[in-house]
Amino acid sequence: MNPTKPAAQASGEEAVRSGRDTLSIVDNRTGKKYEVLITDGTIRAMDLRQIKVGEADFGLMNYDPAFTNTALCRSRITYIDGDAGILRYRGYPIEELAERSTYLETAYLILHGELPVRAQLEEWTYHVTHHTFIHESIKKFLEGFHYDAHPMGMMISTIAALSTFYPDAKHIFDAESRRKQTWRLIGKMPTLAAFAYRHSLGMPYAYPHHDLSYTGNFLNMLFKTTELKYRPNATLERALDVLFILHADHEQNCSANAMRNVGSSHVDPYSAAAAATAALYGPLHGGANEQVLRMLMEIGSIERVPEYIQRVKAGERKLMGFGHRIYKNYDPRARIIKRRAEEVFEVMGRNPLLDIALECERIALEDEYFVKRRLYPNVDFYTGLIYQSMGFPVTMFPVLFAIPRMAGWIAQWEEMLLDPEQKIARPRQIYLGPDQRAYIPIEQRG
Ligand code: CMC
Asked: What is the pTM for the complete model shown?
């Protein structure tokens, strides 16, 4: 069915009278009228193509740099209402999941659409846990990095390298193969991260422990020294698990879009996930948590907060950890993290940078510059303080975002692959360069 009809067949007034969800468009260049279907509050960009000034005209396109008003897909994974500050995975509010679920259970929910029954959770946990080991050659690969290599650079490279170890991952339309790569990717992320961390310290690698939880095992691989068996602190283990739940997916963000975009070429999921990790690394995305900590250290004291805020308002700096493309309200994740921070500080001692962060937030929430632009703390504003208190160096902060986001990336990738409407992602452009011209030999160029 062609959803768009020329106005000769159905005028805008008729459409209104008939109560149909349509948009009437008048092209003032030609005087022609069109009626375009509205479905789910959206019109199809391809419906604009028939709007032409003449036969040779390519047809109307919509221009949307940075996709600020373009729906890329129909998704059933994550729901965000940015004005109301709502975030739900598969319909479940983030607050409830953070309170009652575990990261692995939430990852299962995101990937499978439903919460697991006990046997499903056990089987899922077993498979993820038994795919935590990495090929010994990955260790050799890590040896090639400088001691001060950024761990996100190491992550991007080692995730991409996994594709060479699992050539079966190329069978992306084989559900069994996708299932296996999912266990591997989710299982190996903490191992790759912990090994990158230990490499930067020159410490021997600590291998995974199968009888620890997902986050407990991660802490083991990071911090184990001479003890025969590492016992994670239960408060820190749970706090990290909650942080992982909060970071598990966030619908069509920059890195999810990278995963879908690169995956749409039908490359294997390791290569697509490496691209998603690279997108996350940027300071405007998952790298923001690292920048928040650097900013708080640069501010240095509560007294210097007003001066820093002035510089932000003058456009010299950004208040890192503030603002969001979608949230124009308090990021619900930031609220949960702020509460969890207190529990971590009880174990590890209060992070002295917290007072500077609280003062930044207090001033920003009252200041007209931030109020007018609806800039609120986002997920990254308080996570860094927790990570620092737990003993992580700042360079590890984006890695702590990447590990749990793998569940979301895979779910987004799989949804894209199985969506019959999706094709290789290939945007259009408005060409503004020179028209055809003749090549000029170098000796004749002015
Ligand atoms: N500090 C100061 N001004 C800001 C900030 C900020 N953090 N964020 C936005 N603005 C201003 C911006 O300059 C612009 O002002 P004007 O209208 O005068 O030009 C206005 O607010 C709108 O901002 P925008 O850049 O058009 O908004 P965006 O949707 O393109 O960008 C953002 C969203 C997250 C990239 C941006 O808010 C930002 O750079 N924040 C700091 C980095 C950060 O914390 N990123 C983490 C995002 S949450 C984790 C994740 O999912 O990645």
From this structure: 0.93
